[in-house]
Structure formats: C-alpha cells, structure tokens
Amino acid sequence: MNVYYDEGISGTRADTRPGLQRLMADCRLRRIDMVLTKSISRFARNTADCLALVRELISLNIPIHFEKEGIDTSAMESELLLSVMSSLAESESRSISENTKWSFGKQFRNGTFKVRTPPYGYRRVDGDLQIDPEEAQIVKRIFREAVSGKGASVIASGLNRDGIMSRQRKGWVHSTIFRILRNEVYTGDALYQKTFTDDEYRRHWNTKGEHAQFLATEHHDAIISREDDIEFAFCVMMNKLIFAGKQLLRPYLDEFKKNSSDAELKRIAKLEKELEKNTEKTYSVRRLMAGNYIPPDICNRELNTLKAHASKLKAEIAALEKSAEGSGSVISAIRELIAFTGENRMLTEFDGELFKRFVNRITVMDRNHISFELKCGLALQEKLE
User: Fold this and answer.
1) Is residue 296 part of a domain?
2) Of 226, 146, 215, whose CA–CA distance to 186 is shortest?
3) Which of 87, 118, 202, 367 qualifies as a FRET site for 94, CA 20 to 30 Å off?
C-alpha cells in the first residue's frame, strides 16, 4: 500500500498537486486496486476536478472511499451526493481563501506582514529579511553589468560561465535577471500584493490596479541604495542616447533651430547650410585632384580658398552662438551632447562629472519613475529599477 500526499500545497487545483498526479498516474498503470482518502476536501476542493477524477477512476474500475462522508464510489448509484459534498468542500476552500486574503490584507495595511520566501540576496531570520553577503555580491554584479549596457541574457550567460548557481542550484536565465532588476526589495522597500488569485485559483500579476497594493518603505536593509538607483537610471539613459543619439539628437537640433524666431539663430542656420556646401565642394575638389582631372596647383588654390571660407563661417557661427544668450546656449549644449554620444563609449559605471555636465535637474514623477532634465532642454524619463 502506498501513501500519496501534497505537503503544504493548496488543494484547490488538481494540476498543481504532484502527489495527486502521481496517484492518478499509478492508477492509469493499474498499480492500484482501491483509493482510500480521509475526506472529499482532502481529495479535491474543486467540484469540477473532483468529479472528473472520480469519473476517471470509475472508468478504470478503481473505487474510491471517502472516510469522513462515508461515500464509496463502488456502491454509488448517482453522482448527486458526491457533487453536493464536493461543492461543500469547494465552498469551504473559498471561505478559507477569503479569510486568508482578509488576514493578509490587514497585515499589509499595518505593516506586520512577514515575507515567507526571501528573494535572492536575502535570508529570513526570525521573520525578518537580512542580507545574505554572498548572494548580495551577485545582486550587485547583476545591477553593475546592467548599468554597463549588458542585456539580461548576456548577464545570465556570464553568471553561468563563471559557475555561479542560482538558489535552486540551477543555471541562470534572462527572466530571473529581469525579476531581480525590477524588484523594489533590493532598495529596502517591500511592495505587497504584486499578484492575486482569481476565482478559478489562477495567479495573475496585479499590474492594472485590480487590488490595492501596499508599500512599506525602509522595510529592511538595502543591497542597492536609492542613490544607486538614480545613478543606474542615469547610466541607462545615457547609454540609450549613445546607442540612438544620431536618430534623436540631430533631428532635435534641427527642429530647435527651425522653430526659433531669434535672428541670430536664423543667421546661424543659414551659415551652417553654407558650411555644408563648402564641405561638399571640398570633397569634390579632392576627388578631382585624386583622379588627376585638374592640375594640382589649381586644386590647391581652390582648397585653400574653401578652407579660408569655412574658417570664416565657423568663426561667425561661434560668435553668433555666444551672443545669443538663451537659444544659443541650448544649441551649444545639444552639440556637446551630440559630440559625446558620437564617441560610442557605453557607460560601465556612474560618472559624477558627466552627470553635472549634462543634467540640469531631476524630477521625481512617482515612486518608480524619475525625469532627467538635460541642459540641452530634453526631459527624458527613466524607470527606477
């Protein structure tokens, strides 16, 4: 005789109970002659599951005896009694579930809820979260590599390559890295009721405000400080500009000039077009010179003339930008940012001097988002991981 059980698992859904699934598998292999269970609620608290399982056992000629209710399916002429009893078991399960939800909600509101399963980087000591020094180093590495521009898959591959195991002693995958980067717990906060269970006992993410959420700030020691969070967001923003700066900053500069009514800016735009034409002529002359189509002395005279004209245009542009106090300074800031992002150097760590160079101020949008107002006039929003 074998004993099949599911320790610490809710009986509301049959597909989440390995013990019950093992019992049914052995029944299908004809290893069992009869099933004995203490009560219907121990067997299944979902009416549909209960009836489906009993019908399958009957089709296999395997009777099931419910001790508490005194029901033996081998002598049962109708499913009515079983249906009624299993419905009562399901109602009891729903009542227990509602009471549990109410209890958890009360603990959320008064801040007494204890995290049952500590996230990676922490361990539970007397109900409280405490930092696990070894795992915390891995968490810091994950955040540090994310700042450097590495994707979740690349970070996971690096951890696996270095032989670093997850808590389950398995390899790392990109979804696990995403969860760590997006978990507020590493900044010392705890957000309760991020998921919920529907009437069919299926779990969902509480992303659309289906249920109230509760935030406990400074709930435990942080592995990643809020300052680190802002620095991380700044690096992510700058790396995005480095990656796609040409598609964003150059059109922004052109649009800024186009919409400006200042005489100086209009003059600057005109001079820059002349400078572009000058550059095109210079390239043309050099190509003709390289192909021996024009004598070198004539080419050199033309190149010197174009060079002198270009220097004059640049000097006038610089003077106009300096005189235009407001818009000119914005243009200079945009150009400075374009020059920096054009170097294609992805940030691997926070640079305080770089922050002062490009950022005018930070605005907190909500607990998860901040906006960087750059000196060039752009306001870019980033999520606090």
Assistant:
1) yes
2) 226
3) 118
User: How many CB atoms lie under 10 A from the CB of residue 35?
Assistant: 20
Ordered alpha helix ranges (H), 201-262? 226-259
Nearest-angstrom CA–CA distance, 204 and 199: 11
Predicted confidence (pLDDT) per residue in 308-324, tens digit: 888 888 888 877 766 65
The strand ranges marked E within the chain are: 35-37, 64-66, 71-72, 122-125, 128-131, 190-192, 195-197, 203-205, 214-216, 359-366, 369-374, 379-383
Q: Indicate whether 1 belongs to any domain.
A: no
Identify which of 26, 51, 27, 56 has the alpha carbon closest to the alpha carbon of residue 40.
51
pLDDT at 385: 59
What would the pLDDT profile of 184-204 be if each residue is shown by its tens digit?
888 887 776 666 566 555 665
Considering the domain architecture, whether residues 363 and 236 belong to the same structural domain is answered as: yes
Give yes or no for residue 249 having a pLDDT over 90: no
By the 10 Å C-beta count (0-12 exposed, 13-18 middle, 19+ buried), 265 is classed as buried
pTM attached to this predicted model: 0.42
Kindly tell me if the per-residue pLDDT of 82 is higher than 60: no
* Judgement on whether residues 267 and 374 belong to the same structural domain of the protein: yes
| Three-class secondary structure of residue 20 per DSSP | helix
What secondary structure does DSSP assign to 72-131, as a single string?
Answer: EGGG-S-SHHHHHHHHHHHHHHHHHHHHHHHHHHHHHHHT----SSPPTTEEEETTEEEE
Domain boundary among 104, 128, 153: 104
Q: How many CB atoms lie within 10 A of CB 158?
A: 15
